Amino acid sequence: KAGVTQTPRYLIKTRGQQVTLSCSPISGHRSVSWYQQTPGQGLQFLFEYFSETQRNKGNFPGRFSGRQFSNSRSEMNVSTLELGDSALYLCASSPFGSSYNSPLHFGNGTRLTVT
Amino acid sequence: QKEVEQNSGPLSVPEGAIASLNCTYSDRGSQSFFWYRQYSGKSPELIMFIYSNGDKEDGRFTAQLNKASQYVSLLIRDSQPSDSATYLCAVNDAGKSTFGDGTTLTVKP
User: Fold this and answer.
1) How far is the C-alpha of A28 from the C-alpha of A79, rounded, in Å?
2) Distance from CA of A18 to the nearest CA of B (A)
3) Residues of B whose CB is below 8 A from A103
4) What is the mean pLDDT of residues A63-76?
5) Mean pLDDT, to the nearest integer, of B34-60?
6) Which B residues in the span 62-91 are in contact with A, Cβ-Cβ below 8 Å?
7) Measured between CB atoms, does B61 come within 8 Å of chain A?
8) pLDDT of A105 higher than 70
9) Does residue B45 belong to the interface with chain A, where contact is any CB pair within 8 Å?
10) What residues of B are in contact with residue A10 (Cβ under 8 Å)?
């Protein structure tokens, strides 16, 4: 079974631009969560989608948004990029999501650098 | 106070020793607990999960949960150099997984 696929693996953007990251979950998994990982803050929860609905949201500004499609694939968008948005963005899928105590299966991440 | 706190590292143990990793959490309503391992430059991978008080063993790994003390730990027996990684404790609470900052373990040959 294929794992969680994230594209692209690396991105370099300039302040003020916007970026879209993509995540394809494991086949059959309906929940997709997004996390930001930085050396200073660790893994920070962004949001979780289940059956195309945002079920939970972390403490990030509105510049961070996401969506999930009917095939469970998810995209995350960051608008008006700031230098502090430089991070590894991790997508994780699970069969039923965190509400059902399901463990997370992570993708390889997208490394975003904002200059 | 952080929601999930792990013992500060880095932690260094000799090959063959027992490595003990600890984690405390603040929300008594938390229901499930996970340990993930993250190698440098890689994404986290699940090692173990535990839902009930007590011990859960899987090969060289043992997870221990004490909900009264809001404490979860991971023991790695017969540590190997390949166990050198950052170990992340995660707690499911209100529909999301909250992670600790991680403890970096180095196993020296």
Assistant:
1) 30
2) 24
3) 34, 46, 49
4) 97
5) 95
6) 88, 90
7) no
8) yes
9) yes
10) none
A85 Cβ under 8 Å from any chain B Cβ: no
Cα–Cα distance, B72 to A47 (Å, whole number): 25
Q: Is B66 helix (H, G, I), strand (E, B) or coil?
A: strand
pLDDT at A65: 97
Nearest CA in chain B to A39: B101
Specify the DSSP class assigned to residue A26: P
Q: Answer whether residue A99 shows pLDDT above 80.
A: no
pLDDT in tens, B4-19: 999 877 999 999 999 9
DSSP state at residue A25: P
Strands B103-108 and B96-99: unpaired
Q: What is the mean pLDDT of residues A9-34?
A: 96
- Answer whether B42 sits within 8 Å of A108, measured CB to CB: yes
Tokens of B10: 């880095």
- Tell me whether residues B43 and A107 touch, CB distance under 8 A: yes
Name the token pair of B76.
Answer: 């790695």
CA distance B98 to A43: 8
Which position has the higher pLDDT, B82 or B92? B82
